[in-house]
Amino acid sequence: MTRYEADNVDVVVVGGGHAGCEAALASARLGYKTIIFAINLDSIGMLPCNPSIGGSSKGHLVREIDALGGEMGKNIDKTYLQIKMLNTGKGPAVYSLRAQADKNRYSEEMKHTLERTPNLKVRQAEVVELLTENNTVTGVVTAAGAVFRAKTVILAMGTYMKARCLHGETIEYCGPNGLKAANELTKSLEQLGIRILRFKTGTPARIDKRSVDFSKMAPQYGDEEIVPFSFDDNAEDIAREQIPCYLTYTTGETHEIIRANLHRSPLYAGVIEGTGPRYCPSIEDKVVRFSDKPRHQLFIEPEGEFTNELYVQGMSSSLPEEVQIKMYRSVIGLENCEIMRTAYAIEYDCIDATQLKLSLEFKNIKGLFSAGQFNGSSGYEEAAAQGIIAGINAVRYIQEKEPLILDRSDGYIGVLIDDLVTKGSKEPYRMMTSRAEYRLLLRQDNADIRLMPKGHEVGLVSDERYDKLLKKIADTEAEIERIKSINVGPTPAVQAMLEKYGSTPLKSGMKLSELVKRPELDYYKIAEIDPERPELPKNVTEQVNIMVKYEGYIKQQMNQVEQFKKLENKLLPEDIDYTALTNLRIEAKQKLDAIRPRSIGQAARITGVSPADITALLIHLEQLKR
Ligand SMILES: Cc1cc2nc3c(=O)[nH]c(=O)nc-3n(C[C@H](O)[C@H](O)[C@H](O)COP(=O)(O)OP(=O)(O)OC[C@H]3O[C@@H](n4cnc5c(N)ncnc54)[C@H](O)[C@@H]3O)c2cc1C
């Protein structure tokens, strides 16, 4: 293959998936010449698995991406089929937006956004080699021999690297949906000393909606009063007729069919080498692991407005096709279902993310960044979150500025990246609210307050947008001050309101804000005894209600964050020789030398580094100061 000099850019992004799109948009919008490669341009922003964006903790990620100036939130607001706030029966820390996406439209909109972005070139080509000089990235080479010189490169190859798709005895060497796999680049990365892992995930069959008996299922509707993902969007502007999903269940017969054919599953036959996600188990896994459960719930989800394809959520599988047909037809309402796409498992190469810094730059190759499923995560939202950070930091690298690092108290993005690069992941890493220790502060409703200032600082959030945020914060603080300053007495009107909501009558005066804290009351309910209340937008009243109602818990968590920040801000020199520190245990020396933590806080989260090792490190830092 003859090589030729094709172009010279600032940022090369390898991958047009959720990570690549956010990375490329970030660097191009910051004014840097960027080119994004995809093996097939029609797969840009493709949703190869579940037709949804958001959900528990994933909705938080989408809102954080939006607050930083990313695209995913806006894209799903344009292309959703149904939108719903989950967990509203629980506390606001776990409220999370979820939307059914029109897959084709989602991908088209994202591709069109890339195509309309200044400084951004979109190119169909397979990158087969990475170019470096003196451990610094210099560009890439495509399968056609085109050499693209670049100051930085972002790897976001998802589930395509040496991918193979399996169901039963059938093995196809291709990427998702039969798209071409990327079989060359792994070798080039390994030659540069990058450690490669093998992971696996799976997807269910797609069935034809004409063959489904919906009368046997429970429809699941979206919210009437919708909340947009993007802080820029208004509910009325994105309102549209919504399409329902349907709830159904597997049967005893389903479980029997699976048990009788487990030996033909590549997973149970040991053909699959890659490690799969515990939190996204295949139906085979569920039947084996939860054998006491008589049935498993499934959601039948529309893939788009202009397609008959339905996604059977909860039933991913790699059993043989003939078994799948029997298995799906044993589900309530699917007795006559027609499979349009067979379920399959996919194996692919990815990296051990402990090779990355918290900026997502590789420790051993300057200017090389990595994001998305290729870092060992799983999920569109997790990928997009890493993508925007990698895009911003590729630009900061060119600008020779400090990278943008979000820590565990800044957002779910901070938790995600810290977990991946500090602990690594032995299976596809999926975000969950339980992973975020400060989740009462990291709510989806205040992602803009937490992260938009950082998006503005790096240049991705406009002044106009930032001013709107400052007004929201000012209005919120003013209203909180106001209801904290108003004292109400046991007047008939007050007592009547309290009685209406089953709340204890007042014996003497009380601040309005104290009433909000009562479990049976909130900021909205006390409106009837608050005649002076100003007209305020929903995004302000929501903040007032949460900040006042949970004030005690929020204060508590802010104190915890203060403690956390103390250790997080104790930075460790980049060139420290851990092997020479005699007070450290051998395991700690090895782990610290491999991970090279940025701070004492990060060091303390490395598996195998004990509190005694941290004390030894703190003493060493003190000695260095003297
Ligand atoms: C079968 C299947 C099942 C899944 N199941 C789940 C699930 O149950 N739950 C879940 O959360 N997530 C699941 N996912 C994962 C989800 O799809 C990914 O998390 C998400 O798409 C990752 O986004 P990404 O941007 O990292 O990569 P991808 O969306 O995979 O995009 C990768 C991009 O890189 C391009 N590319 C790759 N190699 C090269 C190269 N050498 N040169 C040029 N371009 C290249 C491709 O063309 C593509 O545009 C599943 C994925 C698949 C395929």
Features:
626 residues; 7-stranded mixed β-sheet; binds flavin-adenine dinucleotide; globular; 22 strands; alpha+beta; 20 helices; 19% strand; 6-stranded antiparallel β-sheet
- Note the total helix count: 20
Which regions contain 5 or more consecutive residues with pLDDT less than 50? none
Backbone CA Rg:
26 Å
Number of strands: 22
Relative helix content: 25-40%
Textual characterization of the structure:
35% of the residues lie in helices and 19% in strands. It has 626 residues and is α+β, with helices and mostly antiparallel strands. Strands 1, 2, 6, 7, 8, 9 and 20 form a seven-stranded mixed beta sheet that branches. Strands 14-15-16-17-13-18 form a six-stranded antiparallel beta sheet, with no helix packed on it. Strands 11-10-19-12 form a four-stranded antiparallel beta sheet. Bound molecules: flavin-adenine dinucleotide.
